[in-house]
Specification:
The complex is a heterodimer of chains A (about 110) and B (about 120). With about 110 residues, chain A is mainly beta. Chain A has no helices and eleven strands. Chain A has strands spanning about 5, 10-15, 20-25, 30-35, 45-50, 55, 65-70, 75-80, 85-95, 105, 110. Chain A is globular, with a radius of gyration of 13 Å. Chain B is an all-beta fold and about 120 residues long. In chain B, the strands form three sheets. In chain B, strands 2, 5, 6, 10, 11 and 12 form a six-stranded mixed beta sheet that branches. Chain B has a four-stranded antiparallel beta sheet with strand order 3-9-8-7, with no helix packed on it. In chain B, strands 1-4 form a two-stranded antiparallel ribbon. In chain B, strand 8 and strand 9 (about 75-80) form a beta hairpin. The radius of gyration of chain B is 14 Å and the shape is globular. The chains are: A mainly beta (about 110), B mainly beta (about 120). The interface between A and B is medium-sized, with 31 and 25 residues.
């Protein structure tokens, strides 16, 4: 069975640009969460979505947004990129919104120049 | 607010030696606790989890962890380390209170494990 898949795996952007990251959860999983992992730190929670509704938001500016589609896949959007947005963006899926066992993808490595 | 502290940023052990990675958490009630492992350039793989019950939890790859409420700790152990265990290890706490985002885990800073032959 396929795990959580994320695309693209690597990308380079310049300051001020916009980026869209994509995530497909494990088949049957209805909840998707997004995390940002800056080099040398642990992942930080950005969003959780379940049944297309936002169920939680971390301490990130409004430049960060996300959505979930009817097939439970998800997009993370970041506007007006800053150098500090350079990080590994991890997507995790779980069966339900109250499931605390998360399954992570391999991430999208974003570099902002 | 919940928090996780991993006091050791980097640990080096010899292959075959025992291993203990420390994790302390701050949370008002009994938390949900996790250990994840991350190889370079990879995502996170769940090693083990504690939700309730027996405080000694067995995980994959021969790892175990013990929940000690009195010490607010959830240390990860392995009796004999293999070279393939070299990676970064993250302790995480999940909220048990209702009405919050269940997909939110709070992670520690991580401990990098180096294994010498």
């Amino acid at each position: 069975d396929a795990g959580v898949t994320q695309s693209p795996t690597h990308l380079i952007k310049t300051r001020g640009q916009h980026v869209t990251l994509r995530c497909s959860p494990i088949s049957g999983h209805k909840s998707v969460s997004w995390y940002q992992q800056v080099l040398g730190q642990g992942p930080q929670f950005i969003f959780q979505y379940y049944e297309k509704e936002e169920r939680g938001r971390g301490n990130f500016p409004d430049r960060f947004s996300a959505r979930q589609f009817p097939n439970y896949s998800s997009e993370l959007n970041v506007n007006a990129l800053l150098l500090g947005d350079s990080a590994l963006y991890l997507c995790a899926s779980s069966l339900f919104d109250f499931s605390r066992e998360l399954f992570f993808g391999e991430g999208s490595r974003l570099t902002v120049l | 607010a919940q928090s996780v502290t991993q006091p050791d940023i980097h640990i080096t052990v010899s292959e075959g030696a025992s291993l203990e990675l420390r994790c302390n958490y701050s949370y008002g009630a009994t938390p949900y606790l996790f250990w994840y492992v991350q190889s370079p350039g990879q995502g996170l793989q769940l090693l083990l989890k504690y939700f309730s019950g027996d405080t000694l939890v067995q995980g994959i790859k021969g790892f175990e962890a013990e929940f000690k409420r009195s010490q607010s700790s959830f240390n990860l152990r392995k009796p004999s380390v293999h070279w393939s265990d070299a990676a970064e290890y993250f302790c995480a706490v999940g909220d048990t209170a209702g009405g919050t985002s269940y997909g939110k885990l709070t992670f520690g800073q991580g401990t990098i494990l180096t294994v010498h032959p």
